[in-house]
Amino acid sequence: MATPSRYVGTAQSRQDGPAKVTGAAKYAAEFTAPDLAHGVVVSSAIAKGRITAIDTRAAEAVPGVIKVLTHENKPRTAWLDYNYRDQVAPPGSPFRALNGPEIVYGGQPVALVVAESFELARHGASLVKVTYDEEVPNTDLEKNRGAAYVPPKKRSGIKPPPDPRGDAAGAFDKAPIQLRQEYRQAIEHHNPMEPHASTVVYEGEGKLTIHDKIQGVNNTQGYVCGVFNLKPDDVRVITPYVGGGFGSGLRPQYQLYLAVAAALDLKRSVRVVLTRDQMFTFGYRPETVQTVALGADRDGRLQALTHDAVAGTSTFEDYQEAVVNWSGLLYHCPNVTLDYKLAKIDTYTPSDMRAPGAVTGIFALESAMDELAYATGVDPLELRLRNYAERDEGEGKDFTSKALRAAYEQGAARFGWSKRKAEPRAMRDGRELVGWGMATGVWEAMMMQSSASATLMPDGKLELACSTADLGTGTYTILSQIGADALGLDLDRVTTRLGDTALPEAPLAGGSWTAASSGAAVQAACRKVAETLFGYARGMADSALANADFAHVTFADGEIRLQTDPSRKVGIADAMRAGGVATVEATETVKPSMLTAMRYSAYTHSAVFAEVKVDEELGVVRVTRVVSAIAAGKILNLKTARSQILGGVVMGIGAALEEESMLDHNLGRIMNHNLGEYHVPVNADIHDIEVIFVDEHDDKVSPLGVKGLGEIGIVGAAAAVANAVFHATGKRVRELPITIDKILA
């Protein structure tokens, strides 16, 4: 069957847009129930120690307060760690709220006050008195570097650094040009617009309907069933809209556990919403210290590369991400050694945050490459071209496709890179120093097992469904585009349902794999519908398609047509009547090709060019221009794709200049736990951002040729800005974020 691309590859507005801007879209904390009670979390005032006493009497005396849950009276739950592990949990013992008197991190939940209204619950929470035996917290990564260790158990889905190749130490010692520097990235918190919340509707007889802030409803369902010993048929999770996630919603957070525990204990519906302050009491991008050593000849060609990283993790889980692996595949180098270790600190477990590991590792690598460019006198772009990797040398595989060279060329041309003056501090605009920097970005192109259904209705409309989430990325729209093209329908006659465990199971929305995975499942389901319709059409009396093959027909304008003779056709409605059916439905499951994964490496790439202007006296940095050239296979929707890259670049600017969760090591707590003091880019910080999608055909990475866009926009952006700051000022700042004090120091 031929599938003309009437919608796929074009710019289409998001189908969920009207619901979001009119308030019709419901988020986790906006669902209700007739008997809904409200829970407010009481957070610990210390970062390490034990609860010696907890006095809830004043809270329980407030009229309208129903119950105060603590470690002393919480309902019984599963005993084994296994039951608490969700789909993306790292090795270790997952955190259990109200599990005992021990305090293991600052802001840990110590009680839940449940009342008839939110206001009463909040007031009751203020009356809970907790007495502690406090210990000195250990939250300083620098002081724990000496105790760093290679995690003994690897996290599922995260590749450890590949084995060394060649003799990196020996080659470095012999290299004419030697560079070794240390780079640091501060803790960052996700801060999505929607706070984490769970509304648990008690349906009676232990049955629950849950509305949870989660990036995959099946993960919430599995977690709740495991922890509370419930059957999947008794737990339905519905989350049609997610107000941003950036990875914070990949794992079920503690408000879910507390809401479910309260609902089952009280046998009534309960909602728990975390405050913005409490949004700083769970996962984050971990602080990481990295050392990169580059040995090169005088022309800048790499001879040796070592990249070591030490990242913080909690005392109870070994969170892991791929930080150093990128250095083994991005450039050609015969001698490479990579090392990744963890150091335990008294915080919550870090969690995946947009392009986890890559944002951190690429900042260090691309900063080092920029330093090498100045050390050798080679233009930064030319240096990367001289070290261009034609294959994945870390894995010893060919790429499914790689159009990075085209991204370099087109991005540089659009940015005007050839006009750059090589010397730092050589470009100026009035009182501002002007700097141009660039960096490379890379992210895995992945596909996961996914299922989806397609149902053609009696009125000719198509409904698509799967359980994945739309985080604001455009998933509703791109799946509808795929379905519309597959069956030749107008886009406004296609609807998509997402975020419900009653729908065919799809993976978590993360890792940039949703389009490739759920998109392929939708395509397969629609193809099955098309095959069924074609069978009905060909079996009709005196059918115009009686002797046709499915491979030689196309679907367009509500008809099944022979490609070589469009006058030979059968209407879809006629085919359904001939088949005696009111609807045609199919559910299909797709899986990634294991053979392809064994033979090839699949990655998206980017070339990021940034212009900064730095006030010479005040040290204020403005990012005035960014050009991001993306090689990501087939682009399904030019409008939503561009939006994804814009958002990634903005987040990269935040990482470069603003975002930092500041730990007070004496208290073991985040000090700037609000949006007033945790700085993120605002409108005044963002100027011109141009996105280029270079042509990249890939017939191996996924059935659709899609690589994914959620992560690649942020990768390399911070490094490009940092390199531009050096070009403007002549001062190399190797610690993110690059703040005024570091520039003026």
Structural shape: globular
In spatial order, strands of the major sheet run 3-5-1-11-8-9-10
Distance between the termini: 65 Å
Radius of gyration: 27 Å
Number of helices: 17
Strand content: 25-35%
Mean pLDDT: 97
CATH top-level class of the largest domain: Alpha Beta
Class from helix and strand fractions? alpha+beta
Proper CATH architecture of the largest domain: 2-Layer Sandwich
Taken together, the total number of domains comes to 3
Q: Which fold does the CATH topology of the largest domain refer to? A: Aldehyde Oxidoreductase, domain 4
Largest sheet: 7 strands, mixed
Walk me through the structure.
The protein is of the alpha+beta class. It folds into 3 domains: 17-24 and 447-591, Aldehyde Oxidoreductase, domain 4, CATH 3.30.365.10; 31-136 and 193-244 and 249-280, Aldehyde Oxidoreductase, domain 3; 146-188 and 284-446 and 598-744, Aldehyde Oxidoreductase, domain 4. 25% of the residues lie in helices and 25% in strands. It is built from 17 helices and 31 strands. The longest helix is centred in the last third of the chain and has 25 residues, at 514-538.
Kindly list the characteristics that best describe this protein.
single chain, 745 residues, alpha+beta, Aldehyde Oxidoreductase, domain 4, Aldehyde Oxidoreductase, domain 3, 3 domains, 7-stranded mixed sheet, 5-stranded mixed sheet, 17 helices, 31 strands, 25% strand
Reconstruct the topology from this structure.
Layout: H1 17-22, E1 37-43, E2 49-55, H2 57-60, E3 65-69, E4 102-103, E5 109-115, H3 118-127, E6 129-134, H4 141-144, H5 168-174, E7 177-185, E8 197-204, E9 207-212, H6 217-228, E10 235-237, H7 254-266, E11 270-273, E12 288-296, E13 302-313, E14 336-344, H8 358-376, H9 380-386, E15 398-399, H10 404-415, E16 427-429, E17 432-444, E18 450-456, E19 462-465, H11 475-487, E20 494-497, H12 514-538, E21 553-556, E22 559-562, E23 565-571, H13 572-579, E24 584-590, H14 594-599, E25 600-601, E26 603-615, E27 621-631, H15 638-657, E28 663-664, E29 669-670, E30 688-693, H16 717-729, E31 735-736, H17 740-744
Parallel strand pairs: 1-11, 7-31, 9-10, 13-14, 15-25, 19-20, 27-30
Antiparallel strand pairs: 1-5, 2-4, 2-6, 3-5, 7-12, 8-9, 8-11, 12-13, 16-17, 17-26, 18-19, 18-24, 21-22, 22-23, 26-27, 28-29
